[in-house]
UniProtKB/TrEMBL annotation:
<feature type="binding site">
    <location>
        <position position="223"/>
    </location>
    <ligand>
        <name>Mg(2+)</name>
    </ligand>
</feature>
<dbReference type="GO" id="GO:0046872">
    <property type="term" value="F:metal ion binding"/>
</dbReference>
<keyword id="KW-0460">Magnesium</keyword>
<dbReference type="GO" id="GO:0007165">
    <property type="term" value="P:signal transduction"/>
</dbReference>
<dbReference type="InterPro" id="IPR020583">
    <property type="entry name" value="Inositol_monoP_metal-BS"/>
</dbReference>
<feature type="binding site">
    <location>
        <position position="98"/>
    </location>
    <ligand>
        <name>Mg(2+)</name>
    </ligand>
</feature>
<dbReference type="InterPro" id="IPR020550">
    <property type="entry name" value="Inositol_monophosphatase_CS"/>
</dbReference>
<dbReference type="GO" id="GO:0046854">
    <property type="term" value="P:phosphatidylinositol phosphate biosynthetic process"/>
</dbReference>
<keyword id="KW-0378">Hydrolase</keyword>
<feature type="binding site">
    <location>
        <position position="101"/>
    </location>
    <ligand>
        <name>Mg(2+)</name>
    </ligand>
</feature>
<protein>
    <recommendedName>
        <fullName>inositol-phosphate phosphatase</fullName>
        <ecNumber>3.1.3.25</ecNumber>
    </recommendedName>
</protein>
<feature type="binding site">
    <location>
        <position position="75"/>
    </location>
    <ligand>
        <name>Mg(2+)</name>
    </ligand>
</feature>
<dbReference type="InterPro" id="IPR000760">
    <property type="entry name" value="Inositol_monophosphatase-like"/>
</dbReference>
<dbReference type="Pfam" id="PF00459">
    <property type="entry name" value="Inositol_P"/>
</dbReference>
<keyword id="KW-0479">Metal-binding</keyword>
<dbReference type="GO" id="GO:0008934">
    <property type="term" value="F:inositol monophosphate 1-phosphatase activity"/>
</dbReference>
<dbReference type="GO" id="GO:0006020">
    <property type="term" value="P:inositol metabolic process"/>
</dbReference>
Length: 281
């Protein structure tokens, strides 16, 4: 049974697979990309590179070999065939992969990018790996087993009373006018919003207590699955605008937030709620 996978030392096997994919496909191309190796997917800000594609292929092969019978939902595979998303609601264990989270940073030679892998079953997150190879950071989380960064336990802690909350929000280049308006309410005394970089690294910063919260307006599972489990296992919390847990299968009330503690989640959601939402609540 695949449940034994998580108690058989396989966490370290997955970590090694992610490191090998980075060493083979990502880091040799960091700051070495040729123009023809960078392609726009959905506009000038949404980029994909040969590193994204090759790393996803590498991880797909290695992860399914580690867990026979498992499926893979990867960002690039879904872009090519949206029906791949259906595996998230299937009976097989599924790997959720973002081969290069923060491709724009990667393209520009900025080390602030990550490789994200999560293992889920029937919509429940079981384990996750967040690897920033250019920063030498590897965070691993297991449901009920806590979170570690480079082998050391991490805790999100709580914002200091009265502290201005640092909040990473969906980047303006990737939001609609309506989404910009919904996030604009966070420009209020006591909150300091800024555009996010790599979503995976923003989640890691929440888990480490270096960032107080996030507020995101999109729900691609590969961007959020690894980080949401990491934050939860570090002692943090998250919720959608409806106050529900985020569903990796989609259909969430947006925006949603992840934060260092439940009190901060409630505060961010109270700001994001419209007058109608408040009345309904």
């Amino acid at each position: 049974m695949f449940e034994q996978f998580l108690v058989s030392g396989a966490l370290s096997d997955v970590e090694e697979a992610v490191r090998k994919a980075a060493a083979a496909e990502v880091m040799p191309r960091f700051r070495q990309l040729a123009d023809h190796e960078i392609v726009e997917k959905n506009g000038p800000h949404d980029l994909v590179t040969i590193a994204d594609r090759q790393a996803e292929e590498h991880l797909t092969a290695s992860l399914t070999a580690l867990l026979p019978g498992s499926a893979v939902v990867g960002e690039e595979a879904v872009h090519a065939d949206p029906s791949v998303l259906g595996a998230l609601g299937g009976d097989a264990p599924v790997w959720i992969v973002d081969p290069v989270d923060g491709t724009r940073q990667f393209v520009h030679g900025d080390p602030g990018f990550a490789m994200l892998v999560a293992l889920a079953h029937r919509g429940e997150l079981l384990a996750s790996w967040t690897y920033a190879p250019a920063l030498d950071l590897m965070a691993v989380a297991r449901r009920g087993g806590g979170a570690v960064l480079n082998g050391e336990p991490i805790r999100s802690g709580h914002p200091e009373p009265g502290k201005v909350l640092d909040v990473a929000i969906s980047h303006y280049d990737f939001t609609t006018d309506a989404e910009k308006r919904s996030l604009s309410v966070l420009r209020t005394p006591g909150v300091a919003p800024r555009p996010c970089g790599s979503a995976g690294l923003e989640y890691l910063n929440v888990a480490r207590g270096l960032l107080d919260a996030t507020a995101f307006t999109w729900e691609n599972a590969w961007d959020h699955a690894a980080g949401l489990l990491l934050v939860a296992e570090a002692g943090g919390a998250s919720a959608t605008l409806a106050g529900d847990p985020f569903r990796i299968t989609g259909g969430n009330a947006l925006p949603f937030t992840a934060a260092r503690d439940a009190a901060t989640v409630r505060h961010i959601l109270s700001l994001l709620a419209t007058p109608a939402d408040r009345a309904a609540g």
